[in-house]
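Continuing the batch. This is chain 6 of the set; chains 1 through 5 are on the previous pages. Same settings as before, nothing changed between runs. Recording input and output for traceability.
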Amino acid sequence: MDRFLSNAVNRIDAKGRVSVPAHFRQVVQKRGYSEFYALRALDIPALDVGGLDLLDRYEQRISQEDPFLQTADDMSFFIHGDGAFLKLDQDGRITVTDFLRDHTGITNEIAFVGRGNFFQIWEPERLKTYGAEARARLLEVRQAAMARRGVVPE
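Output for chain 6:
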């Protein structure tokens, strides 16, 4: 497996650490990550987490902007100033810092959600709500597409 797929909820221990799911650690090992880059998602209460390739992807996007325009400056501020590195310990755990908690609302448990080339960290109840909203949006798109084609749902 070379993609972050599926999801899992893990409990934060008394020392403020949480185990990254085993199937995610397999991807981490295969990709050779020794630490994670984490960025607070712009429009949802989650963190996008990946290796340096995730940071590289964002920096490539910044490089396409005119460096003298506000957009490039804002993007750099967001990607560099609102991101952090998370260390993975020898037991496959990360420390749950205020950086993680403040944006997500995480308290005792963390939901890890695969997103292909990266994963997200969520507060489990917020993830459930978001998941239901995402399904409803996709169903609406599907129904609209079927209506345009004249297909009547059964």
